[in-house]
Specification:
Elements lengths: L3 H8 L36 E6 L5 E6 L4 E4 H8 L7 H7 L2 H13 L7 E3 L15 E5 L3 H6 L9 E4 L5 E2 L3 E5 L8 E2 L2 E7 L15 E8 L2 E2 H5 L16 E9 H4 L6 E6 L2 E7 L7 H11 L7 E3 L23 E6 L3 E9 L3
Parallel strand pairs: 5-16, 7-13, 8-18
Antiparallel strand pairs: 1-2, 1-13, 2-3, 3-4, 5-6, 9-12, 10-11, 10-16, 11-13, 14-15, 14-17, 17-18
Helix pairs in contact: 2-4
Length: 349
């Protein structure tokens, strides 16, 4: 949960207070202090959210309300004086979904909030997640992917992790390490499952009730680090800087419906490389959550990369394996969740 000190630093001690509906359009005093939310924990609904990278370097919440219209939550809070979460992680951890709903409703009707309505095409995307409590990743979770890589089908989910340094935004550039570190770079588009409620020993039947929403995500991979190091360490091939782009949107679970029936695709420089459906997972999201929560507690803001389908470079015959390189553009698309784009560049030494 965001501390009062870091919260004030992020918002620049902006004006925020609890306002009644009748006062929603009234501006706040310039140096008012935000009221910490202490109400019931609620998960977001009817929401498509994104992150805005601001000129000061902060990354704050945006709400998509139309094809190209986005409410800048930080600016709307300043103009309207309504307490609402400033980031997606704050929303998930504190549970102030009603505060966000109130802000969105007021921002769309109040003249005072006109300055908070921006065009999506004008923003620079920030990271949806910067400090999740847990990043859980699943290996070999599509039958055809396991078969193409000549791996045995898992009897239980294969778990590994990334670290926060891997988290990156939509439209980011991944700087590739020097070739003496790694050069066999591969794509993996994945459905990201976002936890919204504390979960421990959850059954499959109730698992989706703990999901706040979903995102398009990418498990970018250095196969030589993953598979050719002496001990075959998956984690080091998966968690170099910016190797985990997510975005452009978080979409609340109620707007997605069944997570096991979503088209999933990858394009490299416009060429289709992966095309499948999340229904082909070996362990669907319900099974993953039930299995993980047998081992440890999942908490609001925790995220789960759920595995990639067939079509990765690693699955090609060795004489046809052309690894990704600087200058390539990758687009990961999942039905209802949008297209995540990023480019590759060579790191300057």
């Amino acid at each position: 949960m965001t501390s009062r000190r870091s919260f004030l630093k992020t918002t620049g001690a902006m004006t925020v207070g609890i306002a009644s509906a009748s006062r929603a359009s009234a501006p706040t005093r310039p140096n008012a202090v935000a009221t910490h939310y202490a109400g019931p924990h609620e998960m977001p609904t009817r929401s498509t959210l994104l992150s805005i990278r601001n000129p000061d370097g902060s990354e704050t919440l945006g709400v998509k309300v139309d094809n190209d219209a986005v409410i800048d939550v930080r600016e709307a809070r300043r103009l309207l004086g309504i307490t609402a979460p400033l980031t997606l992680e704050e929303l998930l951890k504190e549970g102030n979904a009603s505060g966000l709903d109130k802000l969105v409703a007021a921002a769309q009707t109040s003249r005072s909030a006109k300055g908070a309505m921006v065009k999506e095409t004008s923003i620079t995307y920030g990271r949806l997640f910067t400090n999740p409590g847990k990043i859980v990743c699943i290996g070999l979770n599509y039958r055809a992917h396991a078969e193409e890589t000549n791996e045995k089908l898992p009897s239980v989910p294969i778990l590994f992790n990334k670290y926060n340094n891997a988290l990156a935004a939509h439209n980011c550039t991944i700087e590739l390490p020097p070739t003496d570190v790694a050069y066999k770079f591969d794509y993996e588009t994945e459905l990201l499952i976002v936890i919204g409620k504390k979960a421990r020993h959850v059954t499959e039947d109730e698992a989706l009730a703990y999901v706040a929403g979903y995102c398009t995500a990418h498990d970018f991979s250095a196969r030589d680090l993953q598979l050719e190091t002496p001990s075959g360490q998956w984690m080091i091939g998966k968690t170099l800087d910016n190797f985990g782009p997510i975005g452009p949107y978080f979409v609340s679970a109620d707007m997605v419906g069944d997570p096991s029936n979503l088209k999933i695709e990858t394009h490299v420089n416009g060429e289709e490389r992966q095309s499948s459906n999340t229904g082909f997972m070996i362990f669907n999201p319900q099974k993953l959550i039930a299995y993980i929560t047998k081992m440890w507690t999942l908490e609001p803001g925790d995220i789960i990369w759920s595995g990639t389908p067939q079509g990765v470079i690693l699955g090609y015959p060795k004489d046809k394996q052309v690894w990704l390189k600087a200058g390539d553009e990758i687009v990961s698309t999942i039905e209802k969740l949008g297209s995540l784009r990023f480019k590759l560049a060579q790191r300057r030494t």
